[in-house]
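FYI - complex with adenosine-5'-triphosphate, inputs then prediction.
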Amino acid sequence: MATTAAEFIQQSLDDPETFWAEQARRIDWHKPFDRVCDTSNPPFVQWFPGGLTNLCHNAVDRHAATHPDRAALVWVSTEVDQELTWTTSQLLQEVMTMAAALQELGVRQGDRVLLYMPMIPEATFAMLACARLGAIHSVVFGGFASTSLAARIDDARPAVIVSADAGSRGGKVIAYKPLLDEAIALASHEPAHVLMVDRGLAPAAVVEGRDVAWSTLRARHAHASVPCAWVDATHTSYTLYTSGTTGKPKGVQRDTGGYAVALAASIPTIFDGHPGETWFCTSDIGWVVGHSYIVYGPLIAGMTTLMVEGLPIQGFGGQPDGGIWWRLVEKYKVSVMFSSPTAIRVLKKQDPALLKRHDLSSLRGLFLAGEPLDAPTAEWIRDGIGKPVIDNYWQTESGWPILTLLNGVEPAKTRLGSPGKAVFGYRALLLDEHTGEELTGANQKGVLALGYPLPPGCMQTVWGDDERFVQTYWHSIPGRQVYSTFDWAVRDEDGYFFILGRTDDVINCAGHRLGTREIEESISGHPAIAEVAVVGVADALKGQVAMAFAVPRDAARVATPELARALEAEVMKRVDETLGAVARPARVRFVSGLPKTRSGKLLRRTIQAICEGRDPGDLTTLDDPAALAHIRGAADAA
Ligand code: ATP
Ligand code: MG
């Protein structure tokens, strides 16, 4: 084993075969693989072909065999005031029961099963049960609108859909069944069965012959024993859509063996997570972070995973509690926590004293991913909880971090505002997007790209559309067959990357090229600002000008037009001082919320379209339509 992070990473690039063969020993194989890597058909790659394994076996069975009484899953819901724990052996039984239920409904290896579920334990059981049977799961964010759900039903063509009567958010019940029924009516594909978990939250109409109650099948198969299907490492484990921040979401298809190995390797080396410890990821199972780091990653690594249904600012009994997460860290002795910058910005509007009220001695680090982590937010949470805060950059497509620090190999040397460097297995390149030329100098701006082959765990292809995979990801940079991340970045003299925004978020202002991120970072450093979105808006004179939409930490700061103008002037002054007048936004508008995707990403393209008076396009991934109305109002006033 290498001693430094740099050596570890170098090994993975110098001799990937040996490196990954070594990492592959972290999981169980029913039959050893024939080869580590098959690169005979670029840009496709097959990892560990010929090897037989199973995700569920690695996540559940093997731990149930050695540590039957260890807690595997803890579920806490502040929505319905419940706290439950499953040991590895109890989890195994639940998963086998679910697998038997799916089998009874006709699910076979290779069939798709679509999950449209809230954050309840049955969602985890269902994912693992699919993996157990070699069925392909396709999780759709619970509560997604029926039109987006219908499109996903038609794309996945599931044999069975697993759903629930309702989800709950901030105490508000959202009935899922009517949305699901509507989606099935809209879709041209019809599932043979719908397996319904009844939480007793909302009445749900039953379609005779099609809908089946989980409670009935659960009782029937309570002691079922269902063996794992040994599948090839290259067998598709799931499909999942990207967040839809930049346009129509892409259906990512993932393998089995490479994914298991990448996750198993990432937990100790990146996150410093170890068997028997508790892991808390605040994400949603509808997103890749939930797949990799609520369900599969921590379980494969033999950790206890804490799954939470509820808002970060709500406690039990419907009481507001901005310290609920830290309360849970204390209670369950969480060692590793994983969240997102968006969630931390929500906490930023709360009293910082809440961060200090609980005993966080078990916690070693907080990892954040999903959006640029601006330095002021990173500092705020780091100082608030007194723990290392580590940014990690990745995508639905990659399945696990691309850029971050190997905290478990060598204590992280974080650099504020940067997720760090490429981790093992990734050949990260910074390229000129027009010429394809590699930028090797310090502080040059370019597109972040990845060389062939992508490491284990990354997407196999676009589900049902190999051509789209090749065209979208591998042909976007002229003259080079590299994988484009569509993110714009800069690398400093020590090799640390800084993500500047999406390639289509670059603002061209009077000949200067600026990433929206740079301006947002500057504005969010103002103590009165909780959150901000910057977009480029077409301007007859300058080509483009920057427009900023900011959420104040305290609404009183913008209570009157005079106050708002004063704060706007302060914010502009700050941008002048930190970036120069070229970056100064034409206007800073104050709003109470920003439009985001269900996975919490700023929908800058939508804001930009509204500002330019264009049709905002595909809004199916939009979380809260009210936020859009605020932007409309503010943009009209501008
Ligand atoms: P779509 O591809 O459908 O437009 P999306 O790119 O938002 O949506 P995801 O796969 O959920 O879908 O998000 C990955 C993207 O999120 C990255 O490409 C990057 O733009 C952004 N991102 C993730 N983590 C970070 C981070 N730590 N710092 C900066 N940006 C990040
Ligand atoms: Mg993307």
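The first strand starts at residue 37 and ends at 38. Residues 5-474 form a domain with the Rossmann fold fold (CATH 3.40.50.12780).
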